[in-house]
Amino acid sequence: MHEMQRVYKLWSYTAAQPDFSFLPHDLGIAKQHFPSFIMETSWELTLDELRAKVRWWFRATRGSVRVVLLVCVEPGPRGCIIIEKWSAARADSTLKELFIPTRKRLIRITPATPDYDSNGDPVATRSKLARVTGGPLEIKFDDVMLRERSLHLREPTRFVFRDQFFQKYATEVWTHAERRYSRQSTVT
């Protein structure tokens, strides 16, 4: 995989830099000017502001970007994490927009309420640290790699992210957020 951290200039007056992007190596930059996969994340932007970026990527790249993944973390040390997978559906050619962004998956990760032991004390188990709804998240191989998979290489048909992945991810995000918010409270 090839991660690209660069600014994509589309016209003289517009440019964007995603938080993460992927462009397969074997295509070469001459064949594909834009990544196949984009991830936009934010602690500060609202979900609506992130969704505006989705529309921009599909419109500006004329469908070259195949999948946009949004990750929005609500404010607070254990804020809700919302993950949305978007792809572009080809529109009727009579419409002004050729590629209509379509949300394919919505995953919501919230802090789990703890179980209680016989003494009434909270018991947090690793699997109960986060409640995940809307999973799993699947991304097709050909949407990322821009080619069919090779059977002789035993490549997957899709990349699958299950609830356990998101529980671990949420724990890492919330640990970082708690540190971030504790630093902010000591500064103010």
Automatic annotation (TrEMBL):
<protein>
    <submittedName>
        <fullName>Uncharacterized protein</fullName>
    </submittedName>
</protein>
